[in-house]
Amino acid sequence: MPGLLTRLKMTLGRVLFGATEPALDPSAATPTDIEMMRRALSLAESAAKEDEVPVGAVVYRTETGEILAQASNRRECDTDPSAHAELIAMRSAAAQQGDWRLNDCTVVVTLEPCPMCAGLIVNARVGRLVFGASDPKAGAVVSLYELCSDRRLNHRIEAIGGVLAAESSELLREFFRSKRGKKSQ
Ligand SMILES: [Zn+2]
Hints:
By secondary structure, the protein is an alpha/beta fold. It is 41% helix and 15% strand. It has helices at residues 4-17, 31-49, 85-97, 115-123, 165-184, and strands at 56-61, 67-72, 105-111, 128-133, 158-160. Strands 2-1-3-4-5 form a five-stranded mixed sheet. Strand 3, helix 4 and strand 4 (128-133) form a beta-alpha-beta unit. The chain is globular. Residues 11-21 have low confidence and may be disordered. The chain binds zinc ion (ZN). The site of zinc ion has 6 residues, from helix 4.
């Protein structure tokens, strides 16, 4: 639960800047969002076993809960700098439904999207974004940039952050800890 001051600031932000202001208020997540986040977390966990930074993503139809696509980070396996979990999942969701517009979809991802992925979220006109841990080093939704709520861009997204964030952070921490362990051996 965010502290009282944070909540006050969020409410004030919403009043001043409109309802699309990104809120790190995980209590706004629906039971479906949470179920999908659990799925994304297990995808992230299997990515770690393949030596990929553990991030997982699911794209589902907001109305029905139907899963259109899911993916984990594949940067190392594919030697592709763009192979982030949510980017792969969004591309295959669009192919799956035969429409690049994802306005009826929710993108669920275990880590706050980077500038590239947040940019794709805007370009794909994603309806909702739900993410887990924030990323102070690369996050482009609330941390470093606010691409999903920037009024200068032509599309704004309902964003909910901090959903099962502790689980996501723990996966990442454990992954980098074991990497460092391997290096020092
Ligand atoms: Zn990314």
